[in-house]
Amino acid sequence: MTVLEVDGLAKRYRVRGGVVNAVRDVSFNVAEGRTLALVGESGCGKSTTGRALLGIPEPDAGSIRVDGVDLTAASRRDAAAARRHVQMIFQDARSSLNPRRRVRDLVAEGLVISGVPRAEIGPRVEAMLDAVGLDPARVADRRAAEFSGGQCQRIAIARAMVMRPKILVCDEPVASLDVSVQAQVVNLIQDMKRDHGLALLFISHDLSVVRTISDSVAVMYLGRIVEIGEVEGIYSRPSHPYTKALLDSIPVPDPGRPSRGDALGGEPPSPMDPPGGCAFRTRCPLARRRCADETPPLRRTADDRRVACHFPLGEESG
Ligand code: SF4
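That is the input. Now the predicted structure with iron/sulfur cluster docked in place:
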């Protein structure tokens, strides 16, 4: 069952000297028990998209339906109730937790604000700490500042999951952790998804992690989705030249194989002054005249993928 439907999402920021279109016409669905990854270079709009689901910030246009409730059209009360089904964990769990507060209070905070009866809160907090691999008897009365980055991410996951969400937005959840801890946190997120039937929106620049955790993937460039579809199909046969360049930039662990780390040349253009036509044309090895004249729409391909390119890979003769 689809629990998250995003349609035509847009967010603009006024900055000195102009306007930045951080997100433009972004649409996707996520079903219960499925993971959609949002990937792309820094500044592509993936975090803004994730945060818009929680209203931080509110989008300028488009709709966000959570379990059938349109957050952008519902009354304030109904939207707030539906938003409780959406929880988020952030890259730097340490700075997202008040270091002076006790773990018990940090995890309980959302329940207290939501008016959950006091007698229910303690048992729910302790059960969730246990579920994320932290012994409540040892950690609940200690302060967040006493814990490592990996342990703080576990506390943050407990704080989100204790609200019994239907959707969990994970914004670069392992990017600031030691490699040895990353796999543990990824496994914990996977366990939570399986045990609670969550829909996951997994925002990451790490395409190796994305492949292991996701069912589908949306590739973003300068605020737009340029390719979206099932993860295995996209990883084995990317259609958009930007997707291919990103995948070719994944470091190759085998020293006997040539590095392709420079596959994505140059920097993205300024979001304040994006190129006309296809925004990727200034870095695209396949760019032609039409790419400057017309913005390619996101259109469905034969394998039920959607791609925004006039000359998708595998169809170059078109
Ligand atoms: S539309 Fe043109 S410039 Fe844009 S990705 Fe496709 S081939 Fe490259």
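The mean pLDDT is 92.
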